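= Paired protein data =
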Amino acid sequence: MKQLQFNFKKSELEKRLFKNWLFSMFQDCNSERRIYKETPYKNIYTYYKNNYKYLNSEWENKIKKLSLSNAEIS
């Protein structure tokens, strides 16, 4: 399986948070695809590759600030 490469100029914390969030998105997407009788993505790499723009936009505009602030609290 290919290793996911992320071009972060940020901390290890942000990398970990992004990978966890991405895995959660991948699982949710595949669950929905099964419900609607669509073929699930084969692996997380394929999911990320096919949804790169959307995922990065969501992360940068909505999720990153929430994730980082929650991680700093806990």
Q: What stands out?
A: The longest helix spans residues 12-35. The chain has a mean pLDDT of 85.
